[in-house]
Design a protein that fits this description.
The chain has four helices and no strands. With 186 residues, the protein is an all-alpha fold.
């Protein structure tokens, strides 16, 4: 009788351990799927931050171009006016005046801002491409994981609903990098 009780106890312990191990294994598959979802969502958030950065840079770039155009127009109008002799001054006075304007000609800084924004925009486009690649790789990994056996079997067992993440399309950046910083998305 003691032997039967001992055998029943050992069998019960083995069944209990196997059940616990099975539950832990099933739960680990679900935890892995949730971790992969979180990586995709985090990657999407990083990508959106880069899109926002690009939008801000485009506004700054547009302002830099407007500022440069305005400054250039003012300088050209001033030089044109200086080249035109005024009444009573004669050609010699106009030439001296023009020389004075040229000597005080301001150093243009707007073009440096424009170049800086173009470089930052090109670098941002490169980062966007890298984030897109990473996002798509995470989606590919997640989809393969939730569809493959045995994960699919165990996830179905616990009623896990796989999310449908869409791949992001690769498009060429809208700007050319002035220093060749952009890499092809493909």
């Amino acid at each position: 009788m003691k032997k039967i009780a001992l055998i029943v106890l050992v069998v019960a312990i083995i069944i209990g351990l196997c059940s616990a191990l099975g539950i832990l294994m099933v739960q680990s598959y679900q935890n892995s799927a949730i971790k992969k979802e979180t990586l995709i969502e985090s990657s999407e958030s990083d990508l959106n931050a880069e899109y926002n950065r690009r939008a801000g840079l485009l506004v700054n770039l547009a302002e830099a171009v407007k500022s440069y155009d305005k400054h250039e127009a003012e300088v050209l109008i001033g030089l044109s006016a200086a080249r035109t002799p005024t009444e009573g001054k004669g050609d010699v006075n106009a030439s001296l005046y023009l020389k004075g304007v040229v000597e005080r000609y301001p150093q243009l800084r707007s073009i440096e801002n424009y170049d800086r924004y173009m470089t930052e925009l090109a670098m941002t486009e490169n980062r966007i491409a890298q984030h897109r690649k990473y996002y798509n790789a995470m989606v590919r990994e997640y989809q393969a994981y939730v569809k493959a056996f045995p994960a699919r079997f165990f996830l179905d067992m616990v009623g896990y609903q796989a999310k449908d993440f869409a791949y992001l399309e690769f498009k060429n950046a809208p700007v050319d990098a002035p220093t060749g910083l952009l890499k092809d998305d493909k």
